[in-house]
Amino acid sequence: MAAFAKRIIPVPFRDIVPVRVSPADEAPTPGPGWFRGTIPGMTERRYLPDPTRISVLTAAVLLAFALTRVLNAPHLFTLLLPVGTVTLTLAFNLNTVIVLLAAGVTATGMDWLLRTHPSLEKGETREHWLLPTLTVLVTGIALYTLPNSPIWWLGFGLGAVIFLVVALAEFVVVDPNDARYPVATAILTVLAFIILLVLAVALSASNARLIMLVPALFLAGGLAALRTLHLRLNERWDFAWALGIGLVAAQLGAALHYLPLSPVRFGLVLLAPLYALTVLAVSLAEGNPFRRSFLEPTVMLFLFWGLAVWFH
């Protein structure tokens, strides 16, 4: 270092001559294609819903849930459904009507909320109604089966959190270029099957009749699979797989209905093949090899069934 320092020759400031640089030698101004920590040509976008609209929608849904506990539930009307030589009787009370109205408000409110998204295309809001509406219906059914105790308020709080997360995630997935799109897709997939599990447990705990159990599981299982497939397959609808998974949910639920299973065990045993079939459908649609496509569904199937054996 000492030898190198001796070779440095000081130059007086007055002897420094400015050098004129031609425009061709200047560094070009960074444009949109230059790398600045993101992929060239890609713009990272993060949109948030309008705070007023999301607050009003959440408050309306929570108010409906609270009314089902505060108000009395008198019998309103009875619906008679003739099926062959048998007449099925479906009784409706005030709580049932409130939950159905809350589901309708949710669908309308999600449309109202999503219209503030800058990337929303015409007629694109319908696909984002499915999961929030299903969440409200299932939460209303689950709260109806809970006793009037602190457990009900715990379920009320969890239902509010799940609904808010679902609504926010649906707002994010409107734009596939949103930086949070992969996380939001994973959250919606997980919550879709959690909602299905909650429905199965609630129906089993309330000793629902088979005529109510089968269509509820068919609709919930089919909608959960349909929304998951739509998210995972680049917004492509796969009604065939969704219909098949819904039929499996209905048939398996009818078979398990007559077995002496606890509500949690009933839900886990039912959830396992439905989730496995959904993952299998996604993997096959993505063009993965046949053997590889069966790996994850098989692992998840035995994992859920192992949890079902563990729960009493």
Question: What does this molecule look like?
Answer:
The chain is mostly helical and 312 residues long. The chain folds into 2 domains: 47-177, no CATH class; 179-312, no CATH class. 62% of the residues lie in helices and 5% in strands. The chain has a two-stranded antiparallel ribbon with strand order 1-2. Helix 6 (181-205) runs antiparallel to helix 7, helix 7 packs parallel to helix 9 (263-285) and helix 8 (239-256) runs antiparallel to helix 9 (263-285). The longest helix is centred in the middle third of the chain and has 25 residues, at 181-205. The radius of gyration is 28 Å and the shape is globular. The model is unreliable at 21-42 (pLDDT under 50).
Features:
10 helices; mainly alpha; 2 domains; 312 residues; two-stranded antiparallel sheet; 2 strands
Give a quick precis of the structure.
By secondary structure, this protein is mainly alpha-helical. The chain is built from 10 helices and 2 strands.
